[in-house]
Amino acid sequence: MNKTIAPVLAALLTGLLLSACDQAPESDVSQVPVGGEVAGADAAPLDRKLDPAQIVRGQAVYDKNCLECHGANGKGQPGDWRIRNAEGRYPPPPLDDSAHAWHHPTKVLMEAIRDGSPGGEGNMPAWQGKLSEQEMQDTVVYIKSLWSDPVYRLWMKMEQQSLEE
Ligand code: HEC
User: Fold this and answer.
1) Closest residue (by CA) to atom 14 of ligand 1?
2) Which residue is closest in CA terms to ligand 1's atom 34?
3) Buried-most residue among 18, 59, 86, 116 (CB within 10 A)?
4) What are phi and psi of 153, to 5 degrees?
5) CA distance 82 to 89
6) What are 71-107's pLDDT values in tens digits?
């Protein structure tokens, strides 16, 4: 691709991805009915089918490699992760359920970790070659363990749809 246009395109794509994600979150969470069917289901803890051993391993990988940017327990950093910094780049978003990591199916989360910022035009490093596939999968499981039950249920629906596509 043309050298001068590639960074511009990558920046545009990053912006699009982030803004597309921006539109859904709060409204989705607020649509979870309180006292409705979900509340009944809440009585029984949600079976996430996440392997506890994988969560432990994933947290170790996370704390060593990701915490410095994405914060302890995926809480991100002080300040608004939706506002670009002086270099026009986005700060590392929280990966818990307060941002939009949970809007992505497993496949997309894995791609974000493997390949880093789209086009290399952001501050998310590519982990391919630095972490094994297993370590990246463990980290994704750990990240999912940070989401609340109502958010996890929404994510499960979205994951299901992405698998049917
Ligand atoms: C040097 C800082 C830095 C480190 C270290 C880092 N990230 Fe990121 N990460 C970012 C930034 C910045 C973004 C936002 C994407 C962009 O700007 O292109 C991001 C985005 C992401 C996303 C996409 C989130 C979303 O809501 O779409 C995931 C998932 C992610 N990182 C996981 C990880 C994992 C797992 C690790 C450790 C293996 C890690 N990151 C390490 C800076 C970092």
Assistant:
1) 92
2) 66
3) 59
4) -65, -45
5) 10
6) 999 999 999 999 999 999 999 999 999 999 999 999 9
